[in-house]
Structures are given as structure tokens and as C-alpha cells.
Design brief:
globular, binds S-adenosylmethionine, alpha/beta
Length: 187
């Protein structure tokens, strides 16, 4: 998880990113690999209910603190591995959001299958990824930021991996300056 400062500079308006990703009011959402809750807080303001899942319980505690400070009461925090999504949640979701984490998943079709199983019919899986640009070019506050160049995924690779998990691409969106969103639907 990045240190504070440049993350906020990169994502000054997380609610706008969520709107681009297709988040709708009143839905049941899973924020997968939620980190310190920068997006979770905004999701909770829009959603009916949110489950924030991350493998790092210390980051979940930061998220819990952030949401408590924000007066949020509709979010549950679960420490666990994203592959085990089905065992971590008992209710299916309308929308699974995964930002800045898909590139780090070793078996992406497996993860996509786990997400599919956690979605309601017609539910959405929205991935926000760094564009496949050299890391030296993605500067924030004067420094190169983001994952190593060789870890970054093209939209084509992302679509192929997720569709292997039996979800269908609905839309690709640009999220300036350095990201794109890929939105998939359970048929
Ligand atoms: C770069 S952070 C992104 C956090 C958040 N989504 C955001 O964009 O602000 C990546 C997160 O993925 C989590 N993560 C990595 N592997 C995971 C796994 N196997 N299961 C669940 N979370 C994982 C890390 O702990 C970290 O919080």
C-alpha cells in the first residue's frame, strides 16, 4: 500500500472514479483488496452496504478508522485472501470493485471465477488498473509511481484473463492520468 501523500494527489476525487466504474446508489458492494479504505469510504457513501476485504489486517484497521471518522456504519471489514472470496462472504454482491491490485494477482482467471461466484446475476466486476506505460512516465509529485513496468497489464490482457473466469466485458473507460477501468458483467 502506498504511503499517504502521493496517493491522495493521484486520486483527489475517488467518487468520480467510482461513477466511471459504474457504481450505483443503493447496491451491495465488495471492495476487494481495499487497502486503507481510500475508495471504501466513498463506496460506503453511495452503496447500501459494503464489505471491505484485504489480506493485510493492519490496513483494514486503518480503513476501519477512516470510515468510523467519516460516520460510516454500513461497512464490514474482513481480513482474508481474495481467492477465498466465496468463503469470506455469505451474501452475493451487485458490484465488486478492485482498484490497483489486479496486476498483482498470480492466477487472474481463478480470481475472476471467485468474483463471478460472489456476484448476483447481472452483477458487475470493475477493475481499475495502471496503464501499461513505463513506470518512469507515471510521475506523481515529481516521482515515478505505481507498480513495476513489467507487472502492468494491458486492457487486452485484463479482458482475456477476466473473460476466462466467465465474466463478460461491458465497457472500458479511461481514468486519467494513468489508469483505465474494465467493467465486466456476470451473465
Ligand atoms: C496498492 S493497494 C490498493 C488498495 C486500494 N484498492 C486502493 O486502490 O486504494 C493493494 C492492496 O491489495 C491487498 N492484497 C494483496 N494481495 C491480496 C490478496 N491475496 N487478498 C486480498 N488482498 C490482497 C494489499 O494488502 C493492498 O492493500
Amino acid at each position: 500500500m502506498p504511503t499517504a501523500g502521493w496517493w491522495e494527489a493521484l486520486w483527489p476525487d475517488p467518487a468520480a472514479v467510482l461513477a466511471l466504474a459504474g457504481l450505483k446508489h443503493g447496491t451491495d458492494v465488495i471492495d476487494l483488496c481495499s487497502g486503507d479504505g481510500w475508495f471504501t469510504l466513498q463506496i460506503a457513501k453511495i452503496a447500501n452496504r459494503v464489505i471491505a476485504i484485504d489480506i493485510d489486517s493492519a490496513l483494514l484497521e486503518v480503513a476501519r478508522h477512516r470510515l468510523t471518522e467519516g460516520g460510516i456504519t454500513n461497512c464490514e471489514f474482513i481480513a482474508g485472501d481474495a481467492y477465498q472470496l466465496g468463503m469470506l462472504t455469505s451474501r452475493s454482491a451487485d458490484f465488486v470493485f478492485m482498484a490497483n491490485a489486479f496486476h498483482g494477482v498470480p492466477d487472474r482467471p481463478r480470481l475472476a471465477s471467485a468474483v463471478r461466484a460472489a456476484l448476483k446475476p447481472k452483477g458487475l466486476f470493475a477493475i481499475v488498473n495502471w496503464h501499461q506505460r513505463p513506470r518512469e512516465e507515471t510521475t506523481i509529485l515529481g516521482e515515478p509511481r505505481g507498480p513495476r513496468t513489467d507487472l502492468r497489464l494491458s486492457p487486452k490482457q485484463t479482458v482475456s484473463d477476466v473473460e476466462s473466469g466467465n465474466l463478460k466485458l461491458l465497457q472500458l473507460v479511461e481514468i486519467p492520468p494513468y489508469h483505465y477501468g474494465a467493467i465486466f458483467q456476470r451473465q
